[in-house]
Amino acid sequence: xxxxxxxxxxxxCIFTAKAQDxxxxxEADNDTIGPWTKKGNASLLFNQSTFENWVAGGENNIxxxxxxxxxxxxxxxxxxxxxxxxASYGIVKTRNSSFAxxxxxxxxxxxxxxxxxSERWYYSGFVNFKTQFSKGYNxxxxxxxxxxxxxxxxxxxxxxxxxxxGMLYKRDDxxxxxxxxxxxxxxxxxxxxxxxxxxxxxxxxxESMRYELGFNTSMYYKLDVIANxxxxxxxxxxxxxxxxxxxxxxxxxxxxxxKINRYLTTNxxxxxxxxxxxxxxxxxxxxxGVAANYGF
Length: 296
Known about the structure:
The chain is mostly beta strands. It is built from two helices and 14 strands, in the order ααββββββββββββββ. It has one domain (2-228, 235-250, 260-295).
């Protein structure tokens, strides 16, 4: 299954590579435009459905997803420093459910610094941090059929921090691959929620952190496939040298934005994660809809 997903990613990259390479501000004269390039976007995706005596069936629901994406990159002389903040939060409420449930909950910071040694190669160091904003629950029903929930996750439970050094290949701000053969990974949790046999995100019972040392590869690829349609691919692979190195952690994201006008877009967000310390299988998230956007 993992092989099929990676093959699909590779085919997508081959297809999108047919588009013309864009010219980015970072490739222009830095003395003219300054060393910093900054770009951000905030979006609101909203959906609502109502049914009344609808024979085909249906359940009233309302949902919304708020997203924030901000890049601030530095390039001067041999030095390049790329930073990205991603935040999103979404909920859905259906008529027959006792609770509003999350459809998205994410906060992530990426920072990658490199010193140029050839036209497109750099010595590099990176830091990646990610967690969630609010509590996450497991849902079930009691003996009376009433929906109940049990808290399972929260802010910084889990929280992930990766830091490593290696080599960076950077064509421009829209295409880069970072290879870090020496990467430390820290998993933080609430020690009061840990379970026997490291069943809670791989952390030993009674402890609040798990440490790993391994190999990390990350890839970022964004471009316009056709007019007003943008594909953004983000892939991260991690192998732990200290335990089961054959079990490679995978985190792949695909963001497709189809521009309608200056403020409206059709957005498709797809993410799949494989991390056997969190779940013995693939986690999949997909969000699709029309979003109102504000760029800055």
